[in-house]
Amino acid sequence: YVDLSVSWLGLAMANPLYNASGVMCRSVAELEQVRTSAAGAVITKSCTPQPRVGNPEPRYCATPLGSINSMGLPNAGYHYYRDYARSYPYAAGKPLFLSLSGMTLDENLDMLRDLAAAELPCLPEVNLSCPNLPGKPQLGYDFQACREALTQIARVYPGDFGVKLPPYFDPVHFAQMAEVLNTFPTLRFVTCINSIGNGLVIDVEHESVVIKPKDGLGGLGGSYVLPTALANVREFYRLLPGKHVVGCGGINSGREAFMHILAGATVVQIGTCLYEEGEGAFARILDELRQLMAQKGYQCLDDFRGKLKTL
Ligand SMILES: O=C1NC(=O)NC(C(=O)O)N1
Fold first, then answer.
1. 197, 128 Cβ separation under 8 angstroms
2. How close is the Cα of 130 to the center of ligand 1, in Å?
């Protein structure tokens, strides 16, 4: 028998799989699709205080190797998701995470103050890494700005929270960001990774880019990003003792879910694969993970979590 359950942050999950923020989570209908699927948890679309239409379309395109998107944070506004979190059936056993992505630090602080006052069981995942807002840099690449932001966030939000990080590509950057993150004891998890920002996909037949915003530049997801996602999971697993890493990036089957957990992920999120396949992806990936564990003689996730061998 294979046990896929996860116990973390005072939460009990039947399995480690849920959606990546941004996919199947902008409307209540979509959120309910995830909640009533085989997923072990639910996370909302990154929200801003006011609703946003987002970037001009086409703004998403799938390819054989993954996806490119420049959505531009289209969302129903903070109060829509807070109200969903108010009526959410926590007792049913699937945790709810609320993704926040204010356009400024003050916007994040305003939303977090309100969320703290609401005293809801949901957990915030503060998005430090949206790559698709024209003219705005990804906060996660400015270490001093992150330190200042997290100082104020931890001050206005007393509870546990997490952050969605951009991918890093240099050991010095892993170390510098880890030093910032380790300053905050209530920062309990990091979600690695957000899309690899500002890629360019070209359509040879039409000799054109495939998305409209930023002349075709967009965040990459899917198989394109798996090795980078795994590196970020493993490096932050090593560098953030006592914190959890949520793995995200390139999970298409039980094999990639296994890789993320072997690299140290406590739980894992799926984005591109969920967008392309639909909520059936959850049950399929869980079955594949179960089978792989059974073949290897593992009975639970702790039997192999974080035990990636080096040579
Ligand atoms: O953080 C984000 N990452 C992405 O890849 N896309 C969305 C978006 O553009 O809304 N946001």
1. no
2. 5
Three-state DSSP class for 92? helix
pLDDT score recorded for residue 233:
99
Q: 217, 200 in Cβ contact below 8 A?
A: yes
The alpha-carbon radius of gyration of the chain (Å, integer) is 18
Q: Whose CA is nearest to atom 2 of ligand 1?
A: 130
DSSP state, residue 91 = G
273 catalytic per annotation: no
Looking at this protein, which amino acid is placed at residue 235? E
Structure confidence at residue 126 (pLDDT):
98
Tokens in use for 262? 């072997």
Select from 48, 70, 130 the residue to mutate for testing ligand 1; criterion: most ligand atoms less than 8 Å from CB.
130
Residue nearest to atom 1 of ligand 1 (CA): 130
Give the pLDDT confidence of 241-259 residue by residue, as tens digits: 999 999 999 999 999 999 9
Rounded to the nearest 5 degrees, what angle is found at the Cα of 305, between the Cα atoms of 301 and 307?
140
- Please list every protein residue whose CB sits less than 6 Å from any atom of ligand 1: 22, 46, 69-73, 127, 129-130, 132, 194-195, 219
The strand pair at 6-8 and 11-13 is best described as antiparallel
Res 244: pLDDT: 99
With bands split at pLDDT 50, 70 and 90, how would you rate the model's confidence at 141? very high
Task: Indicate which residue of 122, 130, 146, 192 is catalytic.
Answer: 130
The complex's ipTM works out to: 0.98
Do 113 and 100 meet the contact criterion of CB atoms below 8 Å apart? no
Q: What is the pLDDT of residue 223?
A: 98
Cα–chain center distance at 292:
24
pTM of the predicted protein model? 0.99
1 C-alpha to ligand 1 centroid (Å)? 38
Q: Which residues contact 142 (CB under 8 A, 6 or more apart)?
A: none
Centre of ligand 1 to C-alpha 72, Å, is 6
Q: How many CB atoms lie within 10 A of CB 181?
A: 20
